[in-house]
Amino acid sequence: MSHSAARTVHLWFDLPQNAKCVRNEVCVTESQKGTYFCVIAFRHGYSGIQELCDGKKMAIFSVWDSETNVDPCEDERVKVIYSGEGVQVSRFGNEGTGGKTMMPFEWVVGEPAKFKIEAENLDGLWTAFSCYLKNSCSPNWFHMATIKTITNGEMINGVYSFVEDFQRDGANHCKIRSAKFGDCCYMQEKLCGRAQFTADSSTLLNINAGLIDNKFYLATGGETENTSTPLNGFITKSSDPE
Q1: Which CATH number does the domain 9-236 belong to among 3.30.70, 2.60.120, 1.25.40, 3.40.1820?
Q2: Which residues of the chain have pLDDT under 50?
Q3: Which of 17, 109, 158, 199 is the most buried (most CB within 10 A)?
């Protein structure tokens, strides 16, 4: 059977429902062109870092419209109500519709990039989601964008991270992509201690997840072997020191 891409792998974090603020970080350990490392995904959007097919490094933050796979009327579409300097704003389609913001972001393999999503219930119908990011070169939080969408008051739910090969050139599944994630937390530094390892419907077996330095990690492609956590299994961290 031929495969167009490395298998997408996910970590679903054990966090409370309707969180107002979630933080997470990614430390890429191996990347390839055409890779997306999603740091914080949730029911209404996602944020993370990319290595584009031309090698450029980017950050992305997107929020979906309220209707899945339906482009709603103008009044019900997401609204980008703030975007930082240098941030590109556009709409996206195909896998649902919504608003997308992107910016150059020179993340470095082996160094953490941190993301934060904050949610504000505006009026019981619309919720505003704000994305902030920073890395070792920019130690202060940069407010990338705020995007509002219709959620009927829902905040941040279903938090997960993933690694995806979006180049899909038929050869990239032979190359390793891997990253450590952590420490995922909500509100006042309350850390997530458990995550579930899942993957897309591909039949490729060269995937893995587990703990490195007491941080969650994901790996896919190349010579990766599933030696740490079985697919759909749970990963539990040891207690962090006070």
Answers
A1: 2.60.120
A2: 1, 241-242
A3: 199
